[in-house]
Amino acid sequence: MTDTKVHNPQAKYRKDYQAPHYLITQTNLNIDLYDHQTVVTAELHIHKSHEHDLPLILDSEVEKVLSLSVNGETLQTADYEQSTGSLIIKSLPDTFILITTSVVDPANNSALEGLYKSEGVFCTQCEAEGFRKITPYLDRPDILSVFTVEVCADQSYQHILANGNLIAKSLDNKTGRVTATWHDPFPKPSYLFALVAGSFDLLEDKFVTRSGKEIALELYVDKGNLHLAHHAMASLIKSMEWDEKVYDLEYDLDTYMIVAVDFFNMGAMENKGLNIFNSKYVLADESTATDADYHGIESVIAHEYFHNWTGNRITCRDWFQLSLKEGLTVFRDQQFSADMGSEVIERISHANIMRTMQFAEDAGPMSHPIRPDKVIEMNNFYTVTVYDKGAEVIRMLHTLLSASGFKKGMDLYFKRYDGQAVTCDDFVNAMADANDADLSQFQNWYSQSGTPLVSVKETKHDNSLTLELSQTVFGRESSFKPFVIPIKFEILSAQTGQSLKRGQFILDELRQTFSFDITEEVDIVLFENFSAPVKVNRDVPLNQMVRIINNASDGFCRWDMLQSLWQKAAVSDDNSGVRERLIEVISDIIDDTKLDAAVKAEMIKIPSFESLAEGFDVIAVDNILNLRTEIAKQLAASKFEVLASEIDKLGVIANGYEKEVVANRSYKSALLKLAAYANTKDMLAIIRNQFKAANNMTEKMACLIAASIADTDLCKEITEHLYQQFTGQVLVFDKLSQIVATTENDAVYQAMSDWSTKAEFNRANPNRIRSLYGSFVMRNPAMFHSLDGKGYAFLKDLLIEIDSSNSQLAARLVDPLLAYKRYDTKRASLMKQCLVDLSKIKLSNDLYEKVNSALG
Ligand code: TRP
Ligand code: ZN
Description:
Elements: E1 12-13, E2 22-32, E3 38-48, E4 56-59, E5 64-70, E6 73-74, E7 80-83, E8 86-89, E9 95-104, E10 114-118, E11 121-125, E12 145-154, E13 159-162, E14 165-172, E15 177-188, E16 195-198, E17 200-208, E18 214-222, H1 230-247, E19 255-261, E20 268-269, E21 274-278, H2 291-306, E22 315-316, H3 322-340, H4 343-362, E23 374-375, H5 384-417, E24 421-422, H6 424-435, H7 444-447, E25 452-460, E26 464-473, E27 485-493, E28 499-507, E29 511-517, E30 522-526, E31 535-538, H8 542-551, H9 555-571, H10 578-591, H11 597-603, H12 609-613, H13 621-638, H14 640-650, H15 659-675, H16 681-693, H17 697-710, H18 712-725, H19 730-741, H20 747-755, H21 766-779, H22 781-784, H23 790-803, H24 807-813, H25 815-818, H26 825-839, H27 845-855
Parallel strand pairs: 2-12, 18-19, 19-21, 22-24, 25-31
Antiparallel strand pairs: 1-23, 2-3, 3-9, 4-8, 5-6, 5-9, 7-8, 10-11, 11-16, 12-15, 13-16, 14-15, 17-18, 20-21, 25-26, 26-29, 27-28, 27-30
Helix pairs in contact: 1-2, 2-3, 3-4, 3-5, 4-5, 4-9, 5-6, 8-9, 9-10, 11-15, 14-15, 15-17, 16-17, 17-18, 19-21, 23-24, 23-26, 24-27, 26-27
Zinc ion (ZN) binds next to α3.
């Protein structure tokens, strides 16, 4: 296809959902694995779901269909029709067995979707619509089928895995090929199918469920990496215990398998009984992984494990319902992480994700409700909106119904819908019915996109305080329906700072007034614990801001008000006095010896470019960049002694992933980073000494990051040192890539180009691409947004290269360009030109959908 105008992929609409006309009760596969000519034979037991004469339309994106038979009779070419994406068979009986034989080419599958082979391992990724690349099928989540799978491969593959239980394994001595047969007793949609064939090191453990069933736990990692699998295994066991304790949910198969692979488009995949993970979310030890990596592993392992009930046992009716499983499972993994570590730190990090990524997505061209209405490429909808805003919506239900009401709702949800494919409405109805609550207005969170803006006006009377609240959505002021917004609050005495009252109220009209009986001067703290995913428009006087930062009971709110002060500094004139006040407040925090180390670390961090940008209609790139460095430099200069002595006092922190030492390392990292802005000889000496003394990757990376701020040569020296020490270890290489890509001057292009010639770099591997080029476009605003347009052009060329091999990856990298309308005219037109250039070539559906929506 050379005529670009012909390329016009069709959108699908949520309103067009139709129940399937055919059902597949049993799926028996035989998969004969070869690098280029894998033969897949599918025996499908099919019946009509009601009486009709409609054709069977299978989704099909295999290389080639070799043969088809119905009830044992081979179909002639006239009996069926093949068109792009589908295989159509007419005149079928009510019940029949369809056998298809087709061929696929895993070794040439660089998209990493369907069946692919990389680094000697055969592996599948079927969500959302990858199964149709393996065999023709009704590839939609409301077709639930019992799978039996025979996999044949050369005996050199030591492990041949698929979902469920291994029921037979045999070797054909003549051919040297092994056949392994797996049976999964739980009916499942095709997107949960998985297969792996490779040779691994295996870490084994077991778990005894509350009802006494013994589960074999198996973690498969690349040979030589066994010592890196223990944290993942421990995390799995914690997740299993937690889901029993908190939700009364037990695991249901005899074996739980996790395979770690280095070639993977996302974090991990919850295939029934056989999770496949990006190795980044499995492999760790303290010499190669940071605390952030440990945290990521614990939460992703939990996420995929929790999917076994929220996703697999109860799945989605159609892909518009994706948040049914993702929002809910993210909420569950957030609860788990809070229980394992610190609730406040978790809330800070999720509020950051919402504000820097989700609010931006919702203000851009790809804005969609957590339950989208229109989709071209489903892979484009695995978004921060569906996942993270989805989780915030579930959290609001938890807040509105209370923990026990929420649990009742979950119990009813499992009781009603176990084994079914359902909708977001079904979920909310279970919550409502279990609590005798009316959640009809709450459903607006599912149907409306955009970030609500809550405006607050407070008036003090003699014996009361009134809050006038209103809500709106930018650009949809007159058409949106009001959201149900739970607001947790605290009232503090302005005089003593003491807590007078804590509670919650609900804003569910366009405007509403709330009154509190109060006689003294008070400070009111709103949206404790980030109780709703909204923006707040509230003019808080400086003195009151500072009191709230000092006195709020909720650590999240103290951090949050400090962020508001930063925002205020970003938009105020230099001579407004706000900056000075901000510096004073942070200085006091630095001096505060009683603060919890983990929270203190968050409070002395310079907010990211993106989080400051969130406060601007037109993002003032240079102002934001300057503000960040200026304030950091002033703090580093004026507080250098304290910062240095705190670093010194922390000394050598004990290794391990216990809460207290993690908090200390986080604090030390924040101190080093801030002090690095004083690029004095003393500071360079501190970094060198700390680096020499460090015996874990968290502290080494903290030193490297400090060096990247303080001194180019020292940064290069440490990078080279770590590269030599960990040559060949790709996950460490990825960390160093991030440092290379965030060089804040023109040398960054040469540096990336040199770096990409190293043996560890591989353009076909998404982890490598994301850590080098992804860091450049997402974490190096100074260079990505440089006025010469070089950053934008660099991304455009990269996208053109990657889109033809891995469109999912390309479509994720394009995001920073989509927001061009939020930048000044010069930058906006440079960014837009890149999109226009892209729109002129033949793009994947993934990139096409995003580029076209941005160009309107
Ligand atoms: N369902 C997976 C999760 O949330 C994510 C996922 C969707 C995915 N599509 C994918 C993972 C494609 C890898 C590749 O855990
Ligand atoms: Zn998920």
